[in-house]
Specification:
181 residues; alpha+beta; 5 helices
């Protein structure tokens, strides 16, 4: 019996140490999958915190421009009565809700994705590398009277940028052209 307990404790320790190493900051880029998405938002890049069990979006960057916005995960109750189900239906897979932060370039991103809104949210399905992505963009009416569906964006996975653990994505590195000498 004692050896089973010891084996279980060792197994738990190995699993927990693997979880600590599985957490990392990642950058995933997506291309617009259709003309509407290309026109409304273009290609997007996401700074994410990838864990063993879940993935959390930290920042949204316009791949072809210099716009970026921080996002914060929020509860769907911020959308008003009925939450996501009332706005996108109960069969939609996009259930991870993030608010676009209204600082820095956030207001410009909100205006581009959901005109006339002062607040906007992005509802994601499960984020996975090498898989396509659908994003439901939700916004308020500008007067704070509840949320509505602004648009649905469709993306195809483009690639992953590998970064060391605990690194922050520095957009200045990307914006500087690098030519061979």
């Amino acid at each position: 019996m004692k050896s089973r307990v010891s084996f279980s404790l060792v197994g738990a320790f190995i699993l927990l140490s693997g979880v600590a190493h599985a957490n990392s900051l990642r950058i995933w880029s997506y291309d617009a999958a259709n003309a509407d998405t290309r026109h409304q938002a273009g290609a997007l890049t996401f700074e994410i915190d990838k864990h063993l069990i879940f993935t959390k979006v930290l920042r949204v960057l316009a791949t072809e421009g210099q716009a970026k916005a921080d996002v914060t995960q929020v509860d769907e109750r911020v959308l008003g009565r009925g939450g996501l189900t009332a706005l996108i239906g109960n069969r939609a897979l996009e259930r991870d809700l993030y608010q676009i932060e209204p600082r820095d370039e956030g207001p410009a991103m909100i205006a581009a994705l959901c005109p006339k809104s002062k607040r906007a949210w992005l509802a994601f399905g499960r984020l996975r590398a090498y898989h396509d992505l659908r994003i439901r963009v939700l916004g308020d009416d500008g007067a704070g009277n509840g949320a509505h569906l602004c648009t649905t964006l469709e993306y195809s996975f483009h690639g992953e940028w590998k970064l060391p653990n605990e690194a922050r994505f520095d957009t200045r590195i990307v914006q500087q052209p690098q030519f061979p000498k």
